[in-house]
């Protein structure tokens, strides 16, 4: 096996590694229930050190289990309140998005596998039109799975600084809402944002559309000009 691995093209090795990582993520996501994981939070809430250890464990598992950052942000708000919870949850959202982004960027670097090239081309077209920072902010504002956005940014080779800042800004309204919801709970649950979910989704989707309106207009205007010429 080591000999076969060594003679493979770098792109093939990266593709196989990506498939293996995806299989691990799917297995973890299917076997690890948010309810079961969060069930331990109530018992730890009275002990700050234990609670922080539980939160750290949840954040470590989050990208592997494909949990949305808001799920852990609710837990953070439940234990830490709003003032301390918002910065902790924002930091967690950014830091736990980086591994997915980095893995996708590594898989996509110099990879000539057709599906990977196609995904990178689609993502590159989007970020090329919207801009790296604006594109990440809009995508994280919209109700799109967080790790899908991280993968797209990584495959499209969005710079790390723009990616991290985009996640920070785009996740801000979601994180604040989740922490506020968590701080108001008497018992922690894995039910998400509850009654504020729909209004927030509408508002963030509108904000994402507003951010992308200018680049979209420019893109389609250039296409029309090219067709006319």
Helices and strands, with pairings:
Elements: H1 2-7, H2 10-31, H3 34-38, H4 41-44, H5 48-65, H6 69-95, H7 98-108, H8 114-130, H9 132-141, H10 146-155, H11 160-183, H12 197-228
Helix pairs in contact: 2-7, 5-6, 6-11, 7-10, 8-9, 9-10, 9-11, 9-12
Describe the structure.
The structure is a single chain. With 229 residues, this protein is an all-alpha fold. The protein has one domain (2-228). 81% of the residues lie in helices and 0% in strands. It contains twelve helices and no strands. Helix 2 packs antiparallel against helix 7 and helix 9 crosses helix 12. It starts with a helix and ends with a helix. The model has no long low-confidence stretch (mean pLDDT 82).
Structural class: mainly alpha
The overall strand count is 0
Percent of residues in beta strands? under 5%
General shape: globular
Please indicate the count of domains: 1
Key structural traits:
mainly alpha; 229 residues
Short description:
The chain has helices spanning 2-7, 10-31, 34-38, 41-44, 48-65, 69-95, 98-108, 114-130, 132-141, 146-155, 160-183, 197-228.
